[in-house]
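Batch job 17 of 40 flagged for manual review because the log was empty.
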Amino acid sequence: MRRTHPIRAALVACPALVAGLLLSSAPARAADAPLPFTAVSDKQTTVRGGEFTLTLTLTNPYDTPIQFVYQSVQETYGTSLQSGLKFTATACGTQTNGCSDNVHGGIARYNVPLEPGASSTFTVTYTVAPDSACGATTRIDFYSYLYYEYNAGLNNNSGIIGVPGTQVACA
């Protein structure tokens, strides 16, 4: 009597074992990692006619360069619902190759590659119109969509992050 069952089981188990070993040596999926991004506003309160600046920082936590970055910064839905609120981006820069107002809401075009452990910071300054709505509940807040690729484009990470803005005071 031939022993085919153990041989067949071994033939089936070997490819599964090899695939398991190969997959276990792959880097962790980026989607499971938090976004390496911080955002702060320089003023918690801005008066009508004043300005405030958002500082956005991307840090490369990987052991390979970040090679492509797309980021947009847009007002939150709650901010868009506030009638009479008027503000505009008036300056953008530092450590990026510029900002853009394209159809996708893109604002930052980072200089890449961003080397392992390096950070890149850019600022966006907003001016509040002198005749803008104001008050204790009047806020300008933002959200950012961030997408980036690393490991020669083999890995990527993305997500939406809340960006604090400022309260618009009437004084």
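Reviewer: the log was empty due to a logging misconfiguration, but the result itself is present. The first strand starts at residue 37 and ends at 41. Unflagging and moving on to job 18.
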